[in-house]
């Protein structure tokens, strides 16, 4: 924990054991004028360049996606965060997150541009030699080259290191000969440059820069997909594919470092993109609900519809709060590492690694918010929601992939606790102390009074208690299951769910506190409803996940005591959430959009 | 050559319109502001195109408004232009505004002054004409095409049922509409540059407004539409007679 200008910057995972203040966090409402302009520019790009031709995009019209990416390159949208010496704009991490969100509602285009600027370009930028960067990055920045990433194989998806593609040095030492197959490669059908992973000498997992046109490289036909139909997805085949030795990316045998580090940033960026998608799916649904009449009245007057709209808004606001809080943490860490002498690229990678737990939390939650929003969006549209005539049906189909790629949500959930425990074991995170304190508290007389009268003291207390619930359950799980904990995935996932809810609950409370200070209580009334509802609903979810986890390994008195503790830690005041949700929905109906 | 483009801010077209203080003032809270589309898409973009062809052109933007204008001015600067001037006054009277701009324009020696054909909020279409008169230069309204060479401009304008082509010597004030240029999206470099471009704020000249708004009123809400089947003429006649009472 360090202090910069009265701000406490928590280390990765530390939110679980330490408190933050409103002043510590960055919120969307803190965007600079320039950042707001960039957000507006991105939506304008989607509105004017992408949406009018979305049906042609979905038909995979040859050349169309490439021409759009070139246009995006002219706008400066492909190189936001690249250093200037490679044709980039050297913007900060928050700004590049804004670009991902702003471009997130362009359906298949969003996938293509996110893949190009993320997994398609970043491996070379972060791990390339100077020559490799000079050769490829300026062209990737302009859109002259399109990038793609080949990690997955038919036999190895989640188990990425189980890849079977091999690489063997040619006798003259000039080439590596790649043999094998990659699948599900986004932008694969028309990309120019691929980062491909293969095992040298059968076991050294290594990344290579492969260009379309290298001898022995071919691609399969376009996959027929459930959604993101306009995004190119193909298999790649390598038959003694000749890759020049200077195209090894990073070190031989160190491919996993590239594969995993790129994912941290990718997960946060995926959340940014899904939030952009959620925002427009919610706007569509509000507008449709207002206009659709049944029983002689707008369906937006029905409580059933209002509750849906409110639930969509509540979850999106929580995701949005956690996203920019985390993006700013990464940006601050990057600046700190850069100041200490690291290159821009090393610094950003280091910063993203520091907050890898938070990135996994964002990915899971953001992708599930989009599923909720598009699913309820279809429902609000009724029969029309099932028709291709309405964009919401496309949004629904396109949403589903987000829970699968960038690490499935199961893998990400498992990683949340896995990474947290590993950090505790390495001494990076002091979990023992706080977990012991909670265990002791269980044995003592509960503190019922809350004499703290300061604003939000009650909600702050809830968050502290949610964290205690996690520490209690996780602490007990580690103690009971010990080295076998890996085999009890259900327990790990339940605890991850508690963490996901708590991180989001805290993030939206801190944002509300900051906005209250800035705008006054009267102007944040509906936002307070949002936060109240989120915490109220989260308390029950945390309780249920905690119980399910505890019951899996606890016994007797000990289990009974922990149940009592869990009940205490997830207890919140009764809330008339019906009334609060109506107020949230009514505000959106009056604004004709999600304007939070 | 020096070009001046007049930029005003207007509520986003999706804004909810309401009034306050006994219907004498527009309720600005919660309103999203945009550059008046006629100023942005046509006047400003055309000026930028001219500058792209001739880098020696100096392109200035001018607005009359309070500090709340600055974000909109910087949005305009993100599209293009070398610098902006804001005259720090909040009067909506066209004459008042025209005089303020004229004062600056006289000092600046501009060859071409472009405005939008109107603002999409108050729609008065008067500043351009008044400005030309105050500067004693020609005025061409409702341009659909603007070409400039050295000391003259060729301007097309829409007339009833056709088109007119004018030639005019500079300096001139031209109000622009659809056709003059195509909407552009600012790019990242433009947005980044906008922050460092000069935005000069100057105090207004002393002048009385000639008009004063007494009150605003919203149009009556649209009545619901009744659909009558195409073959049911009798019902249509009955409705027109009994309900609409027009026949
Ligand atoms: C449209 C699309 C685009 C893609 N783009 C790319 C790309 O550009 N580049 C690229 O390299 N890859 C890409 N992928 C591949 C994607 O990353 C993988 O599909 C994903 O990692 C899952 O791997 P899998 O499909 O083999 O599923 P599996 O790994 O077989 O998973 C099946 C199920 O088992 C679960 N599971 C697997 N292992 C575990 C475990 N240890 N514990 C608990 N549960 C487990 C998973 O969560 C999932 O529910 C893309 C996929 C799609 C569909």
UniProtKB/TrEMBL annotation, chain A:
Residue intervals of the Acyl-CoA dehydrogenase-like C-terminal domain: 465-568
Domain Acyl-CoA dehydrogenase/oxidase C-terminal: 253-417
Cofactors that this protein relies on: FAD
Keywords, ordered alphabetically: FAD, Flavoprotein, Oxidoreductase
Tagged with keyword Flavoprotein: yes
Catalytic activity: a 2,3-saturated acyl-CoA + A = a 2,3-dehydroacyl-CoA + AH2
All copies of domain Acyl-CoA oxidase/dehydrogenase middle, residue ranges: 148-241
Superkingdom in the source lineage: Bacteria
GO molecular function list: acyl-CoA dehydrogenase activity; flavin adenine dinucleotide binding
Acyl-CoA dehydrogenase/oxidase N-terminal domain boundaries: 32-144
Family to which this protein belongs: Belongs to the acyl-CoA dehydrogenase family.
Name the record gives this protein: Acyl-CoA dehydrogenase
Species this protein is from: Parafilimonas terrae
Organism taxonomic ancestry: Bacteria, Pseudomonadati, Bacteroidota, Chitinophagia, Chitinophagales
Automatic annotation (TrEMBL), chain B:
Domain Electron transfer flavoprotein alpha/beta-subunit N-terminal intervals: 23-211
GO molecular function: electron transfer activity
Keyword Electron transport in record: yes
InterPro entries: ETF_a/b_N, ETF_b, ETF_beta_N, Rossmann-like_a/b/a_fold
Keywords assigned: Electron transport, Transport
PANTHER family xref list: ELECTRON TRANSFER FLAVOPROTEIN BETA-SUBUNIT, ELECTRON TRANSFER FLAVOPROTEIN SUBUNIT BETA
Family recorded in the similarity comment: Belongs to the ETF beta-subunit/FixA family.
The protein's name in its UniProt record: Electron transfer flavoprotein subunit beta
